Amino acid sequence: MSQATTEAALQAAAQHLVILNAVEAVGVAWYDQSRRDFIWAALVGPTENKTELASLAQRVFNTGSAIRESRAGGWVWGAPVNGTTLHGALVAIGSSASASHQGLLDVLGEAAVLAADLATERQRSARLHRWLTSAGRSVAAGNLLMGFAHRINNPLTTIIGEAQLLQTEPLNPSLMASLGAIERAGQRIRTTVQAVVQFTNSNGALEYTDVNATVETALGLVTSQLEGAGVRLTARLTPNLPSVHANTAALSEAWVHLLINAWQAIPGGQAGEIRLATTNRNGYILVTVSDSGPVSVRRRRLVQPFASDTRGELFLAWDILTRAGGQVIVASRPGIGTTIGVRLPLKTAPK
Fold first, then answer.
1. Measured distance CA(231)–CA(335) in Å, rounded
2. Which of 276, 275, 280, 286 is nearest to 240 (CA)?
3. Which end of the chain is more exposed for a tag (fewer CB within 10 A), N or C?
4. In CATH, what number does 3-125 get?
5. What is the strand order of the sheet 87-94 is part of?
């Protein structure tokens, strides 16, 4: 049942209450937090009653409790409607106070709760569909990148080898300098290609992993984009960190997700800063990613992947890191920014 069909059913039920003379006017309203106003799923009755219904709905929503009051020649009635995430009020104005009429309102209230739950589930289903579509595209893109990287690697090996071979010949200094520049450029391309291959192959076995190496791989993949966007990126990596037991490619992917999330938190067109650091703590490695972006509620909703105000990058990083035995902590301070800390447990490699 679509949302339009659900609202039509509520509208029909409300219309029947009026036709049966059970009430003079009735309404079912959802409260829209972004608009700070009600959206009416059903509103039936004389025009002059609509203002009173709206005022009654606001009272019910603000107090969170039912209202039953006498009015000239009749009564007003209201009850909160609370679904999983959709909240509102059922309100009515009437002149009869029979038990059957009260029962009809109760039934309509139950229908409104079911409608709210249905609307919530439809929203979740739509978000899940978008996530799965995105994941499928990411897998396809990863496969494409793998093939592309392998196709680049073969001619690149030839270019580097030929440049190295020619440098053994007695050539003039300017030509030797050019050959050296070609070799260095080729090596940089090779490093980038290897990082791409490693990044897209995130389903490998667990191994004793150098955390700093995985961070450097991630930095190599995103630094140019961040600098091009005017974001200053600084990294402070503690040398000689102990190994952790994890999948190397998956850790690199997690750092990329956290760096992209930090980048997305900085408003477009504004200069921002992202800081990444690694530290050896007692029993674990601490990796922190801090940004200067504004603090919002969604930045604290780390592990709710289908909530409308959660960024996918955060959840993807959380999923990878918790599967590696890590713990993810978010700390935000208005006016300063947000820091995401990751604790990775140490595991000594066998000698």
1. 17
2. 280
3. C
4. 3.30.450.40
5. 37-44, 25-32, 87-94, 74-82, 67-71
Q: What is the pLDDT of residues 270-311, one digit of tens each?
A: 778 899 999 998 889 999 999 887 765 444 444 444 344 445
pLDDT of res. 246: 85
Handedness of CA 271, 340, 326, 350 (dihedral sign): positive
CA-CA distance, 342 to 55, in Å (whole number)?
48
Burial of 107 (0-12, 13-18, 19+ CB in 10 A): exposed
How many Cβ atoms sit within 10 Å of the Cβ of residue 102? 15
3, pLDDT greater than 60:
no
Interval 141-167: pLDDT, tens: 555 566 666 677 777 788 888 888 888
Q: Does residue 255 register a pLDDT over 60?
A: yes
Q: Which residues pair with 102 in a beta bridge?
A: none
Of 163, 160, 187, whose CA–CA distance to 176 is shortest?
A: 163
DSSP E strands, the chain? 25-32, 37-44, 67-71, 74-82, 87-94, 207-209, 231-237, 244-246, 272-281, 284-291, 327-333, 337-345
Q: Considering only CA atoms, which of 81, 1, 4 is closest in space to residue 41?
A: 4
Output DSSP code: residue 71: E
In 3-state terms, what secondary structure has residue 186?
helix
Model confidence band, residue 133 (pLDDT cutoffs 50, 70, 90): low
- The domain ranges of the chain are 3-125, 204-351
Tell me the pairing of strands 337-345 and 327-333: antiparallel
Would you state the torsion angle of the CA atoms of residues 252, 256, 259, 264, taken in this order, to the nearest 10 degrees?
-170
Residues constituting the chain: 351
Categorize the per-residue pLDDT at 236 as very low, low, confident or very high, splitting at 50, 70 and 90.
Answer: very high
d(CA 183, CA 321) in angstroms, rounded, equals 37
Amino acid 278: pLDDT: 95
CATH architecture of structural domain 204-351: 2-Layer Sandwich (3.30)
